[in-house]
Every structure is written in C-alpha cells, then in structure tokens.
Amino acid sequence: MQLIPAIDLLGDFAVRLERGDYDRVLFRQPLDEFLARVVATQPALIHVVDLQGARDGALRTEVIARCARTAGAIPLQVSGGIRTLDVAHSVLAAGAQRVILGTALWADADALTTYVDALGDRLVAALDVRDGVLAVKGWLASTQLGVDEAVQRCREAGVTRLHVTAIARDGTMSGPDLELYERVCASGLKVVAAGGVRDDGDLAALAAVGCEAAVMGVGFLARLGITL
Fold first, then answer.
1. Are the C-beta atoms of 27 and 58 separated by less than 8 Å?
2. In the chain, at which residue ranges do the beta strands (DSSP E only) sit?
3. For the whole prediction, is pTM greater than 0.85?
4. Quick check: 192 and 161 in contact, CB under 8 A?
5. Band of pLDDT at residue 101, cut at 50, 70 and 90
6. Which CATH class, in words, describes the domain spanning 2-223?
7. Does the active-site annotation cover 128?
8. Per-residue DSSP letters for 89-139?
9. Are 169 and 176 in contact (CB under 8 A)?
10. pLDDT tens-digit series, residues 117-164
C-alpha cells in the first residue's frame, strides 16, 4: 500500500476543499512553502491537482513544471484540466510521471481508446464518483455513466490503473468508501483510492480490499501537524 500525499492548487496556493466545493476552502498555504514541506517527508509519489485548471478546462503547465523542479527525484501524478493529448504530453514533458484524465476520456465513444493508445501506462483514468455516477469538469457536472460501466469500458480499452474518488468523502476525514473500492478492485485493474482517507488503519483497510495506493489530503495535513 502506497501513501500518496495530495497537493491541490488554486491560484498560487496549495489548498484543501471539502467535497470538491470551491467555496469551502479548509486550508490554504503558499504553494512553494507547502510543497517544500511535503517533499521533506520523501514520499514515493506526489499527487498534484490543478483545481483551477479542472474548473476552467486549461491545466497550467508552467505550475506543474515548477512543482516538478521542487520535487526533484520524487515523481508526480498530475490532474486537473487535461482535456487534450497535446496538454497531456506537455504535462509529461514538464516533469510528471503519470497524468490523470477524467472529463476528456468520456467526451466521445473513441476518446478512451485514443488516450490509452497514445499514453499507455502513463495514463490513469479518473473515476470521480458521486451518487453512483461519474462527475466531470472539476466535479461541477455529473454524467449518466455508472461506475460499473465506466470500469468495464476502461478494461476493454486497455487502461491499467484507475484513480477512484468518493466525492462525498473528500476532505471530510470520514473514512474511505470501502464498498466502492472493493467493487472496483474486483475488476483486476490497479486502483488508487481517494476521499476520506485518515490514517494507517484506513490504509490497511484499503489494502485489504485490493487497492494498490491511496491519496491522502486532509489526513496528510494532520500528519504534518497542520490544523485546519
């Protein structure tokens, strides 16, 4: 089980939102200051989300390059407003090891296969789940695509890794949605869990249902001694 600390970007700040609500900011700190604190813990991987890019549909590649320089040898997985192949390639060129795409993968019937063919295992498919269906566009819009159908489409297209977020748990410190993750892990795909992950007990529970890793946001702030 790999613990992946999360850095969510809004403007020039690292932030944490509650349930993805841009009006409910739980934490805010200058990006460079917070990133240095995360890097000092020497994680195996850092999860970077450009919330501004996700909301506006245009990831800020220059900010990702800045994060990569500070992270040094620590690899990044990046998401937030990656809506074209050109942007995905620019993010990888800026220093990311993996790119997480959600909205773009469901844009049309061929999109998922197109991205898998172009990016291979550097692509992570985002399943951001709210009320049993996928949310897109920075979680501001919902689709009619259910979790099981989305997982099946990913398997058929050759996706190797899923990033699954239980939106209702995000930023709440209420514990992960183990039923959701067990259901998705049954597909045999690699699963990174996010949403409500608090502590080592949650990490163990996620490992037990088959997840390979978990992203920790508010819980990681607590590990750093940061009070919201």
1. no
2. 2-10, 13-18, 21-30, 46-50, 76-79, 98-101, 123-130, 133-136, 141-146, 161-166, 190-194, 213-216
3. yes
4. yes
5. very high
6. alpha beta
7. yes
8. HHHHHTT-SEEEESGGGGSSTTHHHHHHHHHGGGEEEEEEEETTEEEETTT
9. yes
10. 999 999 999 999 999 999 998 888 899 999 999 999 999 999 999 999
Residue 70 pLDDT: 94
d(C-alpha 166, C-alpha 182), whole Å: 13
Residue 8 catalytic? yes
Specify burial of residue 25 (Cβ count, 10 A radius: 0-12, 13-18, 19+). middle
- Which has the closest alpha carbon to 166: 203, 146, 138, 195? 195
Domain boundaries, given as residue ranges, for the chain: 2-223
Percent of the chain with pLDDT over 70: 100
Confidence of residue 57 (pLDDT cuts 50, 70, 90): confident
Quick one: average pLDDT of 186-192? Answer: 97
Tell me the angle at which helices 200-209 and 178-185 cross, rounded to the nearest 10 degrees: 30
- Count CB atoms within 10 A of the CB of residue 77: 23
Residue 48: which of 40, 34, 129, 184 has the closest Cα?
34
> Contact, 145 vs 105, CB < 8 A?
no
- 50, 128, 170, 202: the catalytic one is 128
**Residue 171: per-residue pLDDT:** 86
